[in-house]
Amino acid sequence: MVAATDHRWDDMVVLCAANSYDGIKLADQHVAEHLARLVPVLYVDPPVSRLTPLLNRKAVSCVKYPGLRLQAPGLARLTPIVAPLASKRGMTAITAALTRRHLRKAAAQLGGQVRAVISAWPQYQVFGSCGEAVRIYWAQDDYVGGAALFGLNATRLDTQERVVAAAANLIVAASPVVAGTWRTRGHETVLIPYGTDVDAYTGVDRAPLPADVELHGPVVGFVGHINERIDLRMLEAVADRGRSLLLVGPKNAAFQPRRLNALLGRPNVRWVGPKEFSVLPSYLRLIDVGVVPYCDSQFNRGSFPLKTLEYLAAGRAVVATDLPAVRWLDTDLVAVAAEPGVFADHVERLLREVRSPALISLRRAFASRHSWAHRAAEIHEAIL
Q1: How far apart are CA 18 and CA 374, in angstroms?
Q2: How many Å apart are CA 135 and CA 118, to the nearest integer?
Q3: pLDDT, mean over the chain
Q4: pLDDT digits (tens, 9 = 90+) for 280-309
Q5: Residue 159: which residues within 8 A CB-CB, separation 6 or more?
Q6: Cα-Cα end-to-end distance for the chain
Q7: Which of 53, 103, 251, 319 reaches 20 to 30 Å from 327, CA-CA?
């Protein structure tokens, strides 16, 4: 694919991502694409085994084409193939060792000098595999607080994450709570929150209307995973007011099935399932107020909800539950509520507000200050 010595790949950043490049477009893919405009990037999918597609059909293409390949100019991709049960007790050290070997081989194939390894893997210590000058642990969430969501043992995960952090030169934290945690533990930490792809939503009001939504306007919308992180009371309070409620995203079948199905069965509620990132503007076109109805949990307090900024980038009003990341944004463009009644009151008030060109411009300007391009530039500065 590339020459043995290819100086186009000098100062390369190896980004060990929390999510596969083929998955829903999340922070990893956004940062990689924007960072690749500044330096060469090797995007590394989370390690998988040949058996992974049996549990996750979306992993088929990763396993079928695992080798080093070029995604875009200056952006390569690698899927490490490891032994089965990669994250199980007794296997994480083996997985890390196998992955380090994959990284060394891929870096050698690309031929450039590796400037930094940025790892978002709390379980696998892979620093030092590429002769990198800078080692950054990208603490995207409070993983220990969310261990139950991932089906992991919190105590073991805490031990593994501390080992990874100890091997890093710097912690990049995606939320103020996570940044505070690592600073308290004595690690040099910089807060670089999540951002938004502003350009993806500039044409939202001209996007084609989706064919699978039949709701009377105005419409309240939520875009994201419907699982244990969601406070259903907030959505129920909105639906109780008779407002049209559009839900876009995958749902966990084990998450309060009776209660959730009752909500989805209401005539003023429409769930359309997961959608590709490229078609989200069509659904956002229908939405007048975007909501972020997260419950008050340890994991959520350490998270940075992507949709808050994405709604603003689309020029939409936003109502969110009271999370530290929302407070960190420090803007009256996001209404904040901790109780269902107040949450629904904010929605009602914003539905009555005229979405003027000036207000749309104000929301988009705020989102622009938090773009993925800005976040990638901050990360680039951190590795210099």
Answers
A1: 20
A2: 6
A3: 92
A4: 999 999 999 999 999 999 999 999 988 999
A5: none
A6: 28
A7: 251
